[in-house]
């Protein structure tokens, strides 16, 4: 199955890059940590999602800020829907890693990466 990024995922990646850049004054290896995250995503997570898109846990939309962020990311995806596709054909899932949680959506043909948060963040970006 094909894996694609969305605008909200790219925004979240930029936020991660800014977060790690800000840490460089305290942790000189912060840039290497971001590189490690990128390698983990590209070499491990994306191929795993291509092979088994339902491997992450089902995403439960919480109330409050976290729920609003998930809805925002999902709405980004719904704007991309092909004619004839309904929300019922989309399953929101989360891939939980040691350092991050990845919000993604599974459609009949494509896995869309929606958002990314470091475990030190309380909620997905908005």
Write a structural description.
The chain is of the alpha+beta class and 126 residues long. The chain has a single domain (2-118), classed as 2-Layer Sandwich (YaeB-like fold), CATH 3.30.2310.20. It is built from three helices and five strands. Strands 1-5-4-3-2 form a five-stranded mixed sheet. Helix 1 (7-23) runs antiparallel to helix 2. The radius of gyration is 15 Å and the shape is elongated. The mean pLDDT is 80.
Sequence-ordered SSE layout with sheet pairings:
Blueprint: E1 2-5, H1 7-23, H2 30-51, E2 57-58, H3 65-78, E3 91-96, E4 100-106, E5 110-118
Parallel strand pairs: 1-5
Antiparallel strand pairs: 2-3, 3-4, 4-5
Choose one word for the global shape.
elongated
Total DSSP E strands: 5
Which sequence of strands runs across the widest sheet? Answer: 1-5-4-3-2
Low-confidence region ranges: none
The second-level CATH architecture is: 2-Layer Sandwich
- Average residue pLDDT: 80
First-to-last CA distance: 27 Å
- Helix tally equals 3
**Count of all domains:** 1
**CATH class call:** Alpha Beta
If you consult CATH, what is the topology?
YaeB-like fold
Largest sheet: 5 strands, mixed
Which structural category fits the helices and strands? alpha+beta
* CATH homology-level superfamily: RelE-like
In which range does the helix fraction lie?
A: 40-55%
Estimate what percentage of residues fall within beta strands. Answer: 15-25%
